[in-house]
């Protein structure tokens, strides 16, 4: 490997890290360095931007330790057979970069992943050493997110949780068949075993914290994972089912979805074109339906097309579900329980909460509901309100064109 200076390494390894979508800084414990103690903070608002649920923007240094790898996963730009320029940081260089960027107020934390070099254990040792040095040698109190390696020794993965706020173990692909075909050197069983061990450690440490103040914290922001969308033949229904299983079995904070992107010198087993980015967006919306709107996984999957298993791209999955199950509507805004109001297209969690609070004191009209939603046109066919009953709308067979967003609002966020 040619000798590269720090700027050249940073350019290569920051660019290589962009394919990892599971970059979040929410949910951790609060730490700060006010009063002259320590360095860094997990608070405040803030190169990579991650967004917390309350809308805060957190700036993280997002890099790979190295983009060299002994594995040859077909979908990965950094695979062993890929013809890309390689670079590698030492653990000390990553520590120095993190502190330097923090002192310049560029970042509030670190997101660190890596290709596999020498062995899984060796690479995991280097990742842990970065986090250990930041915490113990420099008293760094900012956010740290480590990507862990499931094939590494469980004790090394456990050490990552002692120093990092959040850990990630990527399942990579939604199906075992897809993983076997596109990443034959990786084991779905070992990945899930590592996630299970991490869940157990998080639960045990949280329980110990309740009883003993001196108990060490362990991954206070939990664990997350990422699935690549569109590299294999998995349908949206398959992906939703896999995500629900991961949430239920391993207590994940987030499942991230990353649309497959064609890479140079790609393997012949990969698709020639990337999937629409809107597909990735619809999967995130489906994820929110399960996490915040009380939809069961089978209900979300039911919003997909029966023949293809794919969610529609022109409308969101909540609207698709409502159009498919018209017999569940309209619901009475003044009488319906929370779970039914959450199914109404156009009504978010906050809007439903406001409705439930307001109707304790008076009956609500359609105009009242309109103040709580962006598109009253989407809401009208699915609600009964004081002075409003959608008799004609509710019976229309061609309802979809009336409630679907205009075509220009459905453009992909980042067109090719």
Describe this structure in words.
Its cofactor is [4Fe-4S] cluster. With 416 residues, this protein is α/β, with parallel strands linked by helices. The protein has 2 domains: 6-302, TIM Barrel (Alpha-Beta Barrel); 317-410, no CATH class. The chain is 38% helix and 10% strand. It has helices at residues 6-16, 91-103, 120-137, 154-163, 176-182, 188-211, 236-250, 277-292, 297-302, 317-324, 338-341, 349-358, 366-370, 376-379, 391-394, 400-403; strands spanning 48-51, 57-64, 109-113, 143-147, 166-168, 223-229, 254-259, 331-332, 383-384. The strands form 2 sheets. Strands 1-2-3-4-5-6-7 form a 7-stranded mixed beta sheet. It has a two-stranded parallel ribbon with strand order 8-9. The longest helix is centred in the middle third of the chain and has 24 residues, at 188-211.
Short summary:
This protein is α/β, with parallel strands linked by helices.
Topology readout:
Blueprint lengths: L5 H11 L31 E4 L5 E8 L26 H13 L5 E5 L6 H18 L5 E5 L6 H10 L2 E3 L7 H7 L5 H24 L11 E7 L6 H15 L3 E6 L17 H16 L4 H6 L14 H8 L6 E2 L5 H4 L7 H10 L7 H5 L5 H4 L3 E2 L6 H4 L5 H4 L13
Parallel strand pairs: 2-3, 3-4, 4-5, 5-6, 6-7, 8-9
Antiparallel strand pairs: 1-2
Helix pairs in contact: 2-3, 3-4, 4-6, 7-8
Q: End-to-end span in angstroms?
A: 33 Å
Do you know the CATH topology of the largest domain? TIM Barrel
* Unreliable stretches covering 5 or more consecutive residues: 41-46, 409-416
Find the CATH superfamily of the largest domain: Aldolase class I
Order of helices and strands: HEEHEHEHEHHEHEHHHEHHHHEHH
Principal-axis shape equals: globular
What oligomeric state is this?
single chain
* CATH domain class name of the largest domain: Alpha Beta
Q: Which class do the helix and strand fractions yield?
A: alpha/beta
Biggest β-sheet description:
7 strands, mixed
Report the strand count.
Answer: 9
* Average residue pLDDT: 86
InterPro entries: Aldolase_TIM, DNA_rSAM_put, Endo/Exo/Phosphatase_dom_1, rSAM, rSAM_sf, RuvA_2-like
Cofactor: [4Fe-4S] cluster
Keywords: Iron, Iron-sulfur, Metal-binding, S-adenosyl-L-methionine
Protein name: DNA modification/repair radical SAM protein
């Amino acid at each position: 490997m040619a000798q590269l200076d720090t700027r050249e390494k940073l350019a290569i390894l920051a660019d290589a890290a962009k394919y990892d979508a599971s970059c979040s800084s929410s949910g951790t414990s609060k730490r700060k360095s006010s009063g002259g103690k320590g360095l860094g903070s997990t608070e405040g608002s803030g190169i990579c931007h991650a967004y917390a649920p309350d809308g805060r923007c957190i700036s993280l240094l997002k890099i790979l330790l190295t983009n060299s790898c002994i594995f040859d996963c077909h979908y990965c730009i950094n695979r062993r057979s890929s013809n890309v320029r390689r670079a590698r940081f030492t653990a000390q260089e990553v520590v120095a970069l993190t502190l330097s960027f923090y002192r310049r107020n560029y970042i509030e934390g670190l997101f660190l992943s890596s290709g596999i070099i020498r062995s899984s254990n060796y690479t995991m040792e280097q990742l842990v050493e970065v986090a250990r040095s930041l915490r113990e040698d420099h008293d760094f109190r900012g956010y740290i997110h480590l990507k862990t390696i499931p094939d590494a020794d469980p004790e090394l993965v456990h050490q990552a949780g002692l120093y990092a706020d959040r850990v990630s173990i990527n399942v990579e692909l939604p199906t075992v068949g897809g993983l076997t075909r596109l990443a034959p050197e990786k084991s779905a069983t070992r990945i899930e075993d590592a996630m299970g061990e991490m869940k157990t450690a998080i639960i045990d440490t949280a329980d110990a914290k309740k009883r003993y103040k001196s108990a060490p914290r362990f991954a206070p922001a939990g664990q997350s994972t990422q699935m690549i969308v569109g590299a294999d033949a998995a349908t949206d229904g398959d992906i939703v089912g896999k995500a629900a299983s991961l949430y239920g079995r391993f207590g994940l904070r987030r499942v991230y979805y990353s649309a497959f992107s064609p890479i140079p010198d790609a393997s012949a087993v990969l698709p020639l074109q990337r999937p629409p980015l809107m597909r990735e967006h619809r999967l995130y919306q489906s994820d929110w339906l399960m996490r915040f709107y009380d939809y069961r996984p089978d209900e979300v999957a039911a919003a997909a097309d029966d023949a293809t298993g794919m969610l529609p791209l022109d409308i969101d999955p909540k609207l698709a579900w409502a159009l498919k199950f018209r017999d569940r509507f309209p619901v009475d805004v003044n009488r319906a329980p929370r779970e039914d109001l959450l199914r109404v297209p156009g009504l978010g969690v906050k809007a439903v909460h406001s409705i439930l609070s307001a109707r304790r004191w008076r009956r609500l009209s359609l105009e009242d509901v309109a103040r709580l939603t962006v598109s009253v046109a989407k809401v009208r066919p699915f609600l009964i309100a004081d002075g409003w009953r959608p008799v004609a709308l509710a019976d229309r067979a061609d309802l979809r064109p009336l409630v679907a967003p205009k075509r220009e609002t459905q453009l992909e966020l980042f067109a090719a």
